[in-house]
Amino acid sequence: MTPQADPDEGVLFDVPRTKAVAAKSTPKKRRPAEELPIARVVVDTPLPHLDRLFDYQVPQDMDAAAVPGCRVRVRFNGQLLSGFLLERVAESDFGGQLAYLHQVVSAEPVLTSEISRLARAVADRYAGTLSDVLRLAVPPRHARVEKEDIAPAEDGGAEVRCPGPGPWEDYPAGPSFLEALRAGHAPRAVWSALPGPDWADAIAVAVATVLSAGRGAVVVVPDGRDVDAVDTALGARLGPDRHVALTAELGPAERYRRWLSVLRGRARAVVGTRAAMFAPVADLGLVVLWDDGDDVHADPHAPYPHARTVLSMRAHRVGAAALIGGFTRTAEAARLVASGWAHPLAADRAAVRSRAPVVRPAGGDSELARDEAARSARLPSLALRVAREGARSGPVLVQVPRRGYFASLACAGCRASARCGSCRGPLAIRGAHAMPYCRWCGRIAGEWRCGTCGHARMRAGVVGARRTAEELGRAFPALAVRTSGRDGMLTKVGDRPALIVATPGAEPVAEGGYAAALLLDGWALVGRADLRASEEALRRWCNAAALVRPASDGGQVVVLAEAALPVVQALVRWDPAGFAERELAERRELGFPPAVTMASVTGAPAHVRELLDGIELPESAELLGPVGTGDDAEQEERALVRVPHTATFALTGALKAAVAARSARKGDRFAQVRVDPLHVV
DNA sequence: TTCTGGACGCCA
DNA sequence: GGCGTCCAGAAG
Asked: Chain B bases under 7 Å from protein CB?
């Protein structure tokens, strides 16, 4: 204890620091609580080497409020920091002088022991810190809301009745999955949802079944529109007051209000976006993850936990059931099936055929090039025909891969991508009459000539929704054209003929289903330099195609991509599970995730090397790189480490130790570690 | 982030 | 020997 100690800490000192302080402070003698006087606190600091519990004394006057899980403020190295009190104990094994808690912020036990242990496990799994995970798991406090009483349920909290199988009747294993839920078991399934709008109700039925067995449920979906869909379905199956929807857009007060209603046991079911994976549902019986291939399920903040991983860890730890579903299947989900962790839950072929639209590939580049008439709209004749037919009976969806008014440019002669004359960066065009410019150095490309073939003309490559809408407006002058993208999203459209141009994930639902869908620029989606390019293309295509009427009602889909590609075949046959197995097999051969656990170390070359030197890698680890990431401006390098799954925690432990050793010294920017990086190429 | 203590270097 | 600077390590 220094002679400058704070009066909070009960130390008497004879020389006041300043007159002002002397006048204000009447240092009161504090006494520790009689029972369990030691509080073990996780302090909110981003420093990895401080990722452990610190002991404080509980002063007598905070004894009642200082309950496990409550928020506290503590003096830590001279600063006042927030933290959570994890437990009260009789003695500390710390040798030095303990400080007192500075304040118990409130007695609300916001960090339950289940969530605190889960957060610890997640931090370890991702080589991150507990306090980083807790920042995601526990929402910021809203004092006024916390003081409100929770209204009792309208129906007095009556039991939830066990529903019938509903949409699960279409799946041979569906009823037995529900029966296992009803019996309080913990079945785990990877679910291939039938195309169409029933998926949300299927989730609601599973949740209602678990609630009827007296346990709770957590449902995580990619975005607010999906939250609304499931929320509506849950309302229909559970009645009022049994569930809440948690999304980031609610605003802090309402968000905290709903979250508290979960913590306090008023709501037993939660649907939300990724942060809802930590919702403090008591006696959890089921976790559900919808469309697990969507990138938004990976949290963008350190340590970047992924909802699939967190929810499966959570289900495993508490003996809850798990339902991981979507219109497609990720390689990761395929691995959960292959390893025996989960069972596949799919409809038979006949049911798939009766629900899916007819899907036909149109050409790819060769047909596109020949199809002189359609070139202006970048549409081969099959696509034009299908769109015209479809537009006679209802809305037609047009999916374009990138957002905004934007096009990449390629040589009109040889299709090589158009490059900047001074820095070789990719050229793009933005705005209707703008000049092509370089996406790296920003120079306007005036006199351009192809570096490969000498051709002088460029053609537009992948373009965004608005430009496509303009082109289509010309091709279909009689039709209303609407767009839906991140900026200005449509939730649903009616059944009148119209062209709906949307980017992936922003496709509105059509009343009665779309008559047809065109999936544009497929060649560009599939050609991306990314390990998951094909899987991601199929996911986007299937998510759009699932909004189209069944074949029996005339639903048609045209995908502009090379018919021979396996990913296109998987769409045509509607066989995402088969495709996922194939992907997984391929990744096994390549030694890429999810067949192995991978971690990346990214940063300035010297930093990357320094960190790598400090890691005591497990024997089975393999180091790849470091190599430049292609971001020449940043001079950035990346190394990858891969290990078999059995060595995952050995790897993350070693990474954490190395990062902690560094952080003890350097406050400076340092190499960034990421476990399960989303894109490894 | 902030603080402290120990190591080391420079000068008298 | 004494003083000042720098850096590693700790943080209850």
From this structure: 1-4
